Each structure stands twice: as structure tokens, then as C-alpha cells.
Amino acid sequence: MKKLLLILSLAAPLAAQPVQEVQDAIVADALAHNSAYEFLGHLCDDHGGRLTGSPANQAALLDTLHQLQAMGVDARLQTYKMPGWVRLEDKAVMVAPIQRKLRAVTLSYVQPHEPFEADVVYLGDGSEKALEGLDAAGKIGLLAPNALQRRGGYNEYAEGLGLKALIRTCRVNGGQLLCRTGSFQGEPISVPVYCVTQEEGKWMQRSLARGLPVRLRLHTRSYCKEIDTANIVATFPGKTADTVIVGGHFDSWDLGQGAIDNGLGIAQLFGIAKLLQQHARENLRTVELVWFNGEEQGLWGSRMHVPTILDRPITAMVNLDMVGFPKSLNALGFADLVPVLQAFDATLGERKLEKGIDNVNWFGSDHTPYQLAGIRAITFGAYIDPDAVRYYHDFGDTFDKIDPVMVAESTATIAALTYYLANVEGLNATRLDEAGAIALFRDAKLVDRLKHSGIWPFADEDEPASDGK
Ligand SMILES: [Zn+2]
Fold first, then answer.
1. What spacing in Å lies between the alpha carbon of 133 and ligand 1's midpoint?
2. 263 and which of 139, 200, 259, 353 could share a cystine (Cβ 3.0–4.6 Å)?
3. CA 321 to ligand 1 center in whole angstroms
4. Does 238 map to a domain?
């Protein structure tokens, strides 16, 4: 009898390791070996900022791809064309009331122009009320730090006022210039838009308020061009076609190194790839890791990735954009994900998320194109030292701001979530239909903002009359 039992147990297939056990091993490994941090340091210092389409971006992308492949990960490029933009010199010089070179940069998709001089007119927050009775024609409009953050529509706005150029005052102080896109659709901007520091913007505003004429000389050679770029896609095939997508944007602005925004996400994805390779090459569901390009200029990489997955059942998409110390998870309006994330949180034991689970949709990163396709998406609420995160689109977004403990802790939690979503029983892939996707954004009062950005894919008659700002 004893002998028979022994033979039977040898003949039976090895029982799979319980999910919790593997998840705990992944967390322990992530905390013990912080390879994601080391990788990020190399990426930042050896390549610099990763503006999409720039040689630095391309070199860093291939470097990342080759390191993944060297680990044995099935990683490849998903190539595509998108409207690109090249920054050359941007020059803004105050010629009155005094002569002074300003710290200034153009927004992406600004086109080159010959040097010109014009008077500055103050536009306040740029709202209709602030513009009442103002004659801005032929002048350079100066916006206050609290002006509406546009992601498009600069042409209509500046042309409507007859402006020669538009100057944004940076909303963060300390000599900073937070880069941003001038158009989510990559539309060339016919009226040049510059960003100046808060200090110099307020200086000009004070001078104008005292009745002093402020005059600027502007010149940029930055230009738009169509570019060839790529996402990196790494696949860990599962026992089923159901797929968990974990993505984060690879590109950054060019002034700094893009260490926080979004070197963090690049490193975390790299860490997850290594941990899955080590502990969980094959899962119940397929895991697809995606490093997106073109996020900063208009979510191009995620918009290009979504059409490639629509024929597959997608369990959820997890977006990693500037995830520091994880504090909460966000189901982004998908109420059916809340209990799933709560159950995951309970598996974390003493690493349980301090602020639990949120369910609030927001717009501004790569999860949005998935949501628009009805795919469930998840983001993290996280903490980054305010003294580090304030530099996120500027010169100061460099590797010295990265806390190695933050990388290790976040990678551990994100990798645990990835493994959990890929293996937990009873989690079906579902997708909202068009009406459901529209409701998701209508409920969060985001329809107007998406329309303004030009990425709202649905017909106009779907616009709810009651939508707020
Ligand atoms: Zn980002």
C-alpha cells in the first residue's frame, strides 16, 4: 500500500505552487535585488532625456530592448509613424523695459519662425472674462500661471485674438520650465507658444500693471516632422489568451533625463520582466508589458497599441506613470474592479496599501485610450518627495532625485499586482460597449476635456448637455 501511494504521487503532475507563495517570493526578490534602480541609472546617465523621435530616445529604446532580450524575455518593437517635433534653439529676449534674455522654451509642435519683436499684453488666466475689452491684435499675449492648461486649440485661440505669439507663465516657481505638448493631435501650431519661468512671467506682469511697455524679441528654429518610432512589447504567454497589460511611457521631455517622468515606470516594467522571468514565466493569463513612446506629446504609443489588442480578451490594463511609494490603487471608474483590488490588497499583509482602493477616473496618461475602447484600467496613487516631483518636466528631472527604496518598494507592489491579476481565479475579461465607455467619462465629467484634446472618438451627438468643465 505504501509503495503504491509513492508510485501514484510520483506519477501525478507536480501541483502548481499556490499563488500567494509565488507572489510573496516575487515581493521578497524585488526588495532584495533592486535591479530596476540600477537599470534606470544607466538609462538616465548614458542616454539623457528621451523626447520621442530624438536619437537619444531611439538609442535608449534599443538599449532597453536588447537588455530584455538578453534576459531571455520575448520582447520586440511595435513600430509606427506619428507627428514628431524637434527642438532646436528657442530664444526669448526682453528688449523693454530692460534688455534681458529670458529662460524660455517652446511647446511641442511649435513651428520655426523668423526673429520678431512685439509688445506684450497681459491676458490674465486667458478666460473670456479676463479678455473683455482687450485689444491684443499684433501683440504677444502673456498668460498667468493659473491659465487653463490646453492640450490643443492654440491655433484657434491665438488667431481669434490676432496674437503674434503666446507666452505661458510656468505654474511652478523656482526658475522652472515645465514642458508640455501644444497639441494632442500633433497639429502644427501656427502661432508660436512659449513657456517662461513664473518669476519672469510675474515680473513682466508687474511692469505692465505699472504702465511700462514690455517688449519681447522671439525666435525659434524648433520644427515639426513626421517620425518613425516604436513601443517595446514583451509577452509572457499564459495558459489562456486572456491578457493582463502593464504599461508605462518610455518617452520624456528633453530638458532633463526623464528620471521621475517616467523613468520610474520604465524601471518598474523592467523589474517586473525580470521577476516574472525568474519566478513566473507561465501564468494562467498572458502578461503583456508595454513601454509606450509619444505619451508626452499626445498618448501616441498607447493609442497605437490599443488597436493591436482588440481581438483578444483583455482582463485589465495597469498604467504606470510616475508611481512612487504606492499608497492606493485606483479602479478608474470600473466599479467591478474594486473588489478585485481589495482582494489583492488583502494579500499584501503588512505591505497593505495605506489608503486602500479608489475609484475615480482621470485623464492625462496612457490608460485613457484603453478606457475609451471599454477596457478596464488601473492606476496607482503614490507618494514622491515634493522636492523631487516638482521638477517632473524640467531640467531637474534627473536620476539624483530617484530614491532607491522608492524603486524597490514600488516594483515589489506592482510586480505582485501583475502576478495576482495574471493568476487569480474567477477574474473574467470583460469590455464595456460604446455606451458604457461614454458613461465612464461622462460620469467623471471628462468629456469636454477629451473633446478639447481631440482624442474623443465618439460622435458628437453623444455629448451630454450637462457635462461640466
Ligand atoms: Zn508621465
1. 38
2. 259
3. 5
4. yes
Ligand 1 centre distance from Cα of residue 295 (Å)? 7
**3-class SS of residue 437:** helix
Length of the chain: 469
- How far does the centroid of ligand 1 lie from the alpha carbon of residue 37, in Å? 18
Q: What are the b/e assignments for 423-442, b being 16+ CB within 10 Å?
A: bbeebebeebeeeebbebbb
Residue 468 Cα to ligand 1 middle (Å): 25
- Give the domain-ending residue among 188, 221, 254: 221
Selection from 134, 110, 113 nearest residue 122 by Cα: 134
What are the grid coordinates assigned to 251, written together?
Answer: 518617452
pLDDT in tens, 387-442: 889 888 889 999 999 999 999 999 999 999 999 999 999 999 999 999 999 999 99
- Strand (E) positions, 221-301? 223-236, 243-249, 286-292
Domain finish residue from 179, 194, 221 = 221
Does residue 135 sit within a domain?
yes
Q: What is the CA(365)–ligand 1 centre distance, in A? A: 7
Asked if residue 286 belongs to a domain, the reply is yes
Residue 11 belongs to a domain: no
DSSP code string of 41-63: HHHHHHH----TTSHHHHHHHHH
Residue 132, domain CATH: 3.50.30.30
User: pTM for this one?
Assistant: 0.92
How far apart are the CA of 30 and the centre of ligand 1, in A?
A: 23
Asked if residue 299 and residue 408 are part of one domain, the reply reads: yes
Give the torsion sign (CA, 58, 62, 65, 67). Answer: negative
Q: How far apart are the CA of 261 and the centre of ligand 1, in A?
A: 5
User: What's the CA-to-centroid distance between 249 and ligand 1, angstroms?
Assistant: 6
Print the domain residue range for 124. Answer: 88-221
Number of domains observed in the structure of the chain: 2
**Do residues 106 and 183 both lie within one domain?**
yes
Are residues 128 and 258 part of one domain?
no
Reported as a single tens digit per residue, the pLDDT across 240-299 is 999 999 999 999 999 999 999 999 999 999 999 999 999 999 999 999 999 999 999 999
